[in-house]
Amino acid sequence: MRELFPAKQVWGFVLSLALTAAALLVYFFNMSRATGMTIFIVTAFIQAFVQLVVFMHARETDDSKSIFATLYYAIFIALITVFGTLLCMIWGWKY
Amino acid sequence: MGYFAKFAVPHPSPAIYASMIAIVVTVFLIIFGLTYFKKWIYLWSEWITTVDHKKIGTMYLIAALLMLFRGGVDALMMRAQTAVPDNKLLDSQHYNEVFSAHGVIMIIFMAMPYIMAFMNIVVPLQIGARDVAFPRLNAVSFWLFFMGAMLFNISFVIGGSPDAGWTSYFPLADNEFSPSVGTNYYMIAIQIAGIGTLMTGINFITTILRMRAPGMTLMRMPMFTWSAFVTSIIIIFAFPVLTIALLMGTMDRLFETKFFAMTDGGMDMLWANLFWVWGHPEVYILILPAFGIFSEIIPTFSRRNIYGYKSMVISMVVISLYSFFVWTHHFFTMGQTAYVNSIFSITTMVIAVPTGIKIFNWLLTMWKGRIRFTVPMLYSIAFIPLFTIGGVTGVMLAMSAADYQYHNTMFLVAHFHNVIIPGVAFAVLAGSTYYWPKIFGFMLNERIGKWAFWFLTIGFSLAFFPMYITGLDGQARRMYTYSEASGYGLLNFVSFIGAAFMAISFVLIVYTIYYSIRHSPRHVGGDPWDARSLEWATHNPVPEYNFAIIPQVDSREPFWDAKYKRYELFKGDYKKIHMPNNSGVPFIMSALFFVFGFALVFSMWILAVISLIGIFICMAHRSFEIDHGHYISVEEIKETEVKMGGNHK
């Protein structure tokens, strides 16, 4: 019975509901912009990870290594692009 | 008539009216010719609906040659205008339009499809596959590129050319300073072609990861396939940035949003930033496959295997990563602090290292080799010193403090032509000559080809080396004229002579093709160059199914080993072959994209909505279509193999 029950999927579902509820707090409670954005970003990234691993089966096939390599590469490029842009357009802007 | 007034060219000249007449006459002649020779059905069933990677590659090749002509004429007009001081050949507005068109066409509608042509023709053959992973998607890619190119090209006779440079910087490209529809064409035509490129990237990653012949591990792949793989990775990470930047630019122009405006919270420099976040990786998208082509040609004509295979692969992978770290060096003078500039100076200098490794590998491949000076090899040998000069001036430009002197001068123009022409243009011309028998089944004439090579190399040196000097003397790029007192006259005239040499070289290349079609012997066999990799293991021209039997790979150069070490490449018997069916939907959908783009350019909303619905209908058709492809029977394979002079079974 234990093998047949999709415990992982149920937990994933509960977790994704909980994360959505956590993100909704920002709407219902009066908090600063910085706190709100932090909650959004943190919950969004955990949510994306849960979806990938639990429901999109990123870990279950033989090519999971290349899936994660691509993922890390993409995240790395995205971070470089975003923070590089912030660096030259805002933080390092002279005029 | 009021309705049609918006299609008029805002700044006409006799040359534009002449082009209009020429376009109408050409279209009429093509329609007449096709009808007279009864070729409509042939054209539709053999080419327009094809999903065969070799035919799609051939169409890319032809489109690229046509665009090379258009971009080359633009270049000649610019060089003629600046040949003497205070020239009146073009006025400033026309000069703006001509250099904008030259840049866009040469990068996006000439170099890109030329690279795509080789990726399409060569990669499936090199990995021993029957086609790409998604043949139908491949046809969509080509037709989207083609329709984007055509949309861009009609701009100069309908509504006016873009005139804000190939970089189309805001705020200049905004409605306030570029009121004609020209920049709309820029935004939408590149968007349509860019979607096609993105699909190609996805297609080739899947093809290379999934469809290699048995035994071909990643570290046994030929260099060109490696370069196509790395390029595809860069494409899928870089092009989404362009897609979004163009979308925001289109919104700014059509719907008055303020993404790149100078007021209301917009940020004009953000365009430059996003453009180069795509634009710098784009440079490597062009140059890496070019390196791949050289890496195929140099070992073949040196009779040696490539030196430092592993370091070649590693440097390409490293370049693909580094190419995303350097974009700010395109606007060192924009207003960041010295601290930011220093970071990007260092990353830029670092990227020269893997490129340098590749240069040494090519040199060491030739070292002690038995070199044959064929046309492709001549291009490859000339590439090395010329490209190195371009690379060294690139490192000069990378020094941000010194860049304040070079920025926006002819020095920069000389630098990027010095890397793109010996890098990309030499590679694709060498590649065309090298793969010509593979595509068409006969060789290009070597004697005329060598003349073309020498005219191009000397013409290139004459045209671009003087620009380094005028640039250091302060001649700004994109200036339509200069005074006699500036003293730029003589060197600019030398440049013009160089450009004329390059034009002669283009004529010679076209003549080689014509001459070889008429006189070159057919039946050159499968391996006219004594080459090393799998694409030469099948017949010339390649049969529809590529390989009658999928080759078995056991080393990095299976075909060479099969020839000289008695290694058996094709094991087993013929089996029926599963092939994809042709389809007209990619063409129809892309034609609807053309109409959609045209409607957006002129803000014709009803037409835009109708064509968009048509595009969605095409997609829905594909979703519900049941198409299992077709089989080629064993008898048919045998028949083809015998006809091709098959030497096995």
From TrEMBL, chain A:
Any Gene Ontology biological process: electron transport coupled proton transport
Keywords: Cell membrane, Membrane, Oxidoreductase, Transmembrane, Transmembrane helix
Entry EC number(s): 1.10.3.-
Domain of life of the native organism: Bacteria
Pfam families noted in UniProt: COX4_pro
A single GO cellular-component term on record: cytochrome o ubiquinol oxidase complex
Catalytic EC class: oxidoreductase
GO molecular function terms noted in the UniProt entry: cytochrome bo3 ubiquinol oxidase activity; oxidoreductase activity, acting on diphenols and related substances as donors, oxygen as acceptor; proton transmembrane transporter activity
Subcellular location: Cell membrane
Membrane-topology descriptor: Multi-pass membrane protein
InterPro entries attached to this UniProt entry: Cyt_c_oxidase_su4_prok (IPR005171), Cytochrome_c_oxidase_bac_sub4 (IPR050968), QoxD (IPR014250)
Residues passing through the membrane, by range: 12-30, 36-58, 70-93
Presence of the UniProt keyword Membrane in the record: yes
Catalytic activity line of the entry: 2 a quinol + O2 = 2 a quinone + 2 H2O
Main function: Catalyzes quinol oxidation with the concomitant reduction of oxygen to water.
Protein family per UniProt: Belongs to the cytochrome c oxidase bacterial subunit 4 family.
Protein name per the record: Quinol oxidase subunit 4
Organism listed in the record: Peribacillus asahii
Organism classification: Bacteria, Bacillati, Bacillota, Bacilli, Bacillales
TrEMBL record, chain B:
Pathway the protein takes part in: Energy metabolism; oxidative phosphorylation
Taxonomic placement: Bacteria, Bacillati, Bacillota, Bacilli, Bacillales
Transmembrane spans: 15-37, 58-78, 98-125, 137-158, 185-205, 226-249, 269-294, 306-327, 339-364, 376-399, 419-436, 448-469, 489-514, 584-617
Names of required cofactors: ferriheme a; Cu cation
Protein name in UniProt: Quinol oxidase subunit 1
Top-rank taxon, per record: Bacteria
Gene3D superfamilies, alphabetized: 1.10.287.70, Cytochrome c oxidase-like, subunit I domain (1.20.210.10)
Top-level EC class: oxidoreductase
Catalytic reaction list: 4 Fe(II)-[cytochrome c] + O2 + 8 H(+)(in) = 4 Fe(III)-[cytochrome c] + 2 H2O + 4 H(+)(out); 2 a quinol + O2 = 2 a quinone + 2 H2O
Membrane topology reported for the UniProt record: Multi-pass membrane protein
Any single Gene Ontology cellular-component annotation: plasma membrane
Annotated Cytochrome oxidase subunit I profile domain residues: 38-554
